[in-house]
TrEMBL record:
Residues 454-598 form the Glucose-methanol-choline oxidoreductase C-terminal domain. SUPFAM superfamilies: FAD-linked reductases, C-terminal domain, FAD/NAD(P)-binding domain. Residues 40-349 form the Glucose-methanol-choline oxidoreductase N-terminal domain. Keywords: FAD, Flavoprotein, Signal. It comes from Tetrapyrgos nigripes. The keyword Metal-binding does not apply. This is Uncharacterized protein. Residues 539-562 are annotated as: Disordered. The active site is at H540, H589. PANTHER family: CHOLINE DEHYDROGENASE, MITOCHONDRIAL, GLUCOSE-METHANOL-CHOLINE GMC OXIDOREDUCTASE. Transmembrane segments: none annotated. FAD binds at V119, V270. It comes from the Eukaryota.
Length: 611
């Protein structure tokens, strides 16, 4: 979607730099401006999806003082954050960390981008807004792995209701009352259904209903967030009133605007955590070192109760390693030998499949036509309606692999029978990539397939000479490095072809033929080659600081980097709250799981600190 050049220029003109700054107390842009007299009970590192939830919940206790430190920029007035359809334009910009992986063997040596939010709200401000909670099996599996029943589906229900509230779509009269999901509660985060009707939607629903009588792996679902995540249906999204909602808009800004016990420091990177004292022989990590440029002056802040590390799967691992908490084999000298830091990293591989269609209703023209882009953006500003009030994805589906997949000694990596192995996403246009630029003419549908229970494992390591967070770490997802992942992706391709071969996609001559390189991938080997030459990820990295069960016989008191209460093993005063603690990769889009982790973490922190 990089072809939206006119929109990008207009969005830039209307972005943070040219809008009047919002006057808010206790928001700092320079560490030296934070009064030295300020004494903090809690310091939250990262104002992202998880960090803002934790900071907001902790600041509900007016007797506690909270400092939030964010490396990135303010989100106020950033149009590419606010406008749902412009979500792809936020990546590879000033609101993105602009990471890349090391060359991936499974991708024929290609490096790929790793979008992560460099802005208030973190990746909740630059993602594609998908709200998929995963199945009850996922959370029961996490409870089993950690030995903590509090992570189970039933125990977490009260936290789910605290997060989101369903909001009616603004401009889509095709959504009928019986299609409204019931899985949301009364929390601050708006969740909605697609705001604008697009052509593939009803074809997807009709096909799922048609095929489910022939093959139980295909089915229609109204609410894939109700405990069983399988099926095809509407994509629930984090939006309300035609605009994106994030952890910043739902949690952080309301706290900043209504409380005096929370401070925010932006444009400032945490370079490492420092030991502040010892408790017996255990180091206490209560100090946070920050800087605003490489080699620049350092400032240290101290928390009297806890430091909460919420820098995300990439940033959290890097900060722990820079602080001497990690594998001795990788770091040499360590403060705490924590072998799992930076390990167990997983992401969902995806692949775009292109089809030409006979239609005048795709949004390909909106990706090419500068005048149309301006019209649509002005409509959004005027009424929060139209195509730009919508996300790029209206419909998707989650599927199991065939039972025959597991008859030859292949173990099932999913968390249970209600969890998916693969995902199919429908886009009413050509999705341009580095390998597949936007065609100058034609109308298209892109079917994106993904493996959501991958077995490939990667890592986060410090780069040689990387002594602070101004040097990107070495990010290795190990994508498509196992035969299971390759075979699962092949099955996802086959299932998507079966799906769109059904009659609803051929009504009125809608679907014409495969397009581009995918059209030439007719044999299994050609499909594998296409996969390795074109695959990317859904940008859902997890696991670099995984939690595990307690075990008195373990040197650190248990498995993983953190215990089930998310306290970092081997130290005191330090907790991790973000996607890095997930011991398995969710078979869904990850932002909902991260909100959930943060809500429960805030409750655990309050309990442990007598709040």
């Amino acid at each position: 979607m990089k072809q939206l050049s006119t929109v990008w220029a207009l969005a830039g003109a209307l972005s943070l730099s040219s809008l009047p700054s919002t006057v808010r107390a206790a928001v700092y842009t320079n560490p030296s401006d934070v009064p030295s007299s300020n004494s903090y009970d809690f310091i939250v590192v990262g104002a992202g999806t998880a960090g803002n939830v934790v900071a907001s919940r902790l600041s509900e206790d007016s007797s506690k003082k909270v400092l939030v430190i964010e490396a990135g920029v303010d989100d106020t007035g950033v149009v590419t954050v606010e406008v749902p359809f412009l979500a792809p334009l936020a990546q590879n910009t000033a609101v993105d960390w602009n990471y890349t992986t090391i060359p991936q063997t499974g991708l024929n040596g290609r490096s790929i981008t790793v979008p992560r939010g460099f802005v208030l709200g973190g990746s909740s401000s630059i993602n594609f807004l998908g709200w998929t909670r995963g199945s009850e099996d996922l959370y029961n599996k996490i409870a089993s792995i950690t030995g903590d029943s509090g992570w189970g589906w039933d125990a977490l229900e009260s936290f789910w209701t605290k997060i989101s509230t369903f909001v009616q779509p603004t401009d889509n009269d095709q959504v009928t009352p019986d299609e409204i999901p019931q899985s949301n509660g009364n929390g601050p985060l708006d969740v909605s259904l697609p705001n604008f009707d697009i052509e593939p939607d009803e074809r997807v629903f009709e096909t799922a209903k048609l095929l489910q009588s022939q093959d139980s792996r295909f089915k229609y679902t109204v609410d894939m967030n109700a405990g069983d995540s399988l099926g095809f249906g509407y994509n629930q999204v984090t939006a309300g009133g035609g605009a994106r909602t994030t952890s910043a808009t739902a949690y952080l800004h309301p706290a900043l605007n209504s409380r005096s016990n929370i401070d925010l420091l932006i444009n400032t990177r945490v370079t490492r955590l420092l030991q502040s004292s010892t408790s017996g022989s255990t180091p206490v990590f209560g100090k946070v070192e920050v800087a605003q440029k490489a080699g620049g002056p350092k400032t240290v802040f101290q928390a009297s109760s806890e430091v909460i590390l919420s820098a995300g799967t990439i940033g959290t691992a890097q900060i722990l390693l820079l602080s001497g908490i990690g594998p001795e084999a990788d770091l040499g000298q360590v403060v705490v030998n924590s072998p799992d830091v930076g390990k167990n990293v997983r992401d969902h591989p995806l692949l775009e499949l292109y089809f030409s269609v006979n239609s005048n209703d795709t949004y390909d023209d909106a990706l090419r036509d500068a005048d149309l882009q301006t019209t649509l953006l002005n409509q959004w500003f005027a009424s929060k309606t139209g195509l730009f009030a919508d996300t790029p994805v209206n419909t998707l589906g989650f599927m199991r692999l065939p039972d025959s997949f597991f008859t030859s000694g292949v173990s099932d990596p999913s968390s249970g029978a209600k969890s998916a192995h693969t995902e199919v996403i429908f886009v009413d246009a050509f999705v341009p990539t580095a390998q597949n630029p936007m065609p100058s003419v034609g109308d298209f549908m892109t079917v994106i397939v993904a493996v959501v229970s991958p077995t490939s494992v990667g890592s986060i390591k410090l780069a040689s000479g990387g002594s602070d967070t101004f040097t990107q770490p070495l990010i290795d997802y190990g994508l498509l490095s196992t035969d299971f992942d390759v075979q699962a992706m092949l099955q996802a391709i086959t299932d998507s072809e079966t799906f769109i071969a059904a009659s609803p996609f051929h009504r009125d001559g809608f679907l014409v033929a495969p397009f581009g390189g995918f059209a030439n991938a007719t044999t299994t080997q050609q499909k594998v080659d296409y996969m390795r030459n074109n695959a990317d990820t859904v940008h859902h990295p997890v696991g670099s600081a995984k939690m595990g069960a307690d075990s008195p016989s373990s040197p650190l008191g248990g498995d993983g980097v953190t215990d089930p209460r998310l306290r970092v093993r081997g130290v005191k005063g330090l907790r991790v709250v973000d996607a890095s603690v997930l011991p398995i990769i969710p078979e869904c889009h990850t932002q909902a799981a991260v909100y959930l982790i943060a809500e429960r973490a805030a409750s655990l922190i309050k309990e442990d600190n007598g709040m």
